[in-house]
């Protein structure tokens, strides 16, 4: 059974830093995409950062220049270094992994989510 486990969340003051980590277990494959999403109270879940198997990185405009995503595809791990944190970054952060493959003649995707880790930034 594939499981994504996040760690590294916590309480930090404005301007502080946190590093989130996500480890996948139960996999016999490498994810094609790994990402971090977040969901603040009363808001929809949103993409924070994404890294692909080709090492392409994408960031939400609100975190560009402050957050850095990195990872190791062989071990299915992904990190999110968060610097200069702001109260608006307060949310539950979720790890995401997508595996893509061609089965027969059809492309298929399998998506997995972690349980989430709370990040709270105090003003």
Quickly list its features.
123 residues, mainly beta, seven-stranded mixed β-sheet, 11 strands
Would you write up a description of this structure?
There is one protein chain. The chain is mainly β. The chain contains no helices and eleven strands. The chain has strands at about 5, 10-15, 20-25, 35-40, 45-50, 55-60, 65-70, 75-80, 90-105, 105-115, 115-120. The strands form two sheets. Strands 2, 4, 5, 6, 9, 10 and 11 form a seven-stranded mixed beta sheet that branches. A four-stranded antiparallel beta sheet has the order 1-3-8-7, with no helix packed on it. A hairpin with a 4-residue loop joins β7 and β8 (about 75-80). It is elongated and about 55 Å long. About 30% of the residues are buried.
Number of strands: 11
> Based on CA inertia axes, which overall geometry fits?
elongated
> Helix count, per DSSP?
0
Whole-angstrom Rg: 15 Å
Q: Mean pLDDT score, rounded? A: 95
- Unreliable runs: none
Largest sheet: 7 strands, mixed
**Structural class computed from helices and strand pairing:** mainly beta
Give the H and E element order: EEEEEEEEEEE
Proportion of residues in extended strands: over 45%
Distance between the termini: 40 Å
Give the % helix.
Answer: under 10%
Which oligomeric state applies?
Answer: single chain
């Amino acid at each position: 059974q594939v499981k994504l486990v996040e760690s590294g969340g916590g309480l930090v003051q404005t301007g502080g830093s946190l590093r989130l980590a996500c480890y996948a277990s139960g996999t016999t494959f490498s994810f094609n995409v790994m990402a971090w999403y977040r969901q603040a109270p009363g808001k929809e879940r949103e993409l924070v950062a994404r890294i692909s198997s080709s090492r392409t990185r994408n960031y939400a405009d609100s975190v560009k220049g402050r957050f850095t995503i990195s990872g190791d595809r062989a071990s299915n791990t992904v990190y999110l270094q968060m610097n200069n944190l702001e109260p608006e970054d307060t949310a539950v952060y979720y790890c995401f992994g997508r595996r893509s493959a061609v089965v027969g003649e059809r492309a298929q995707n399998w998506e997995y989510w972690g349980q989430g880790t709370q990040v709270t930034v105090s003003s």
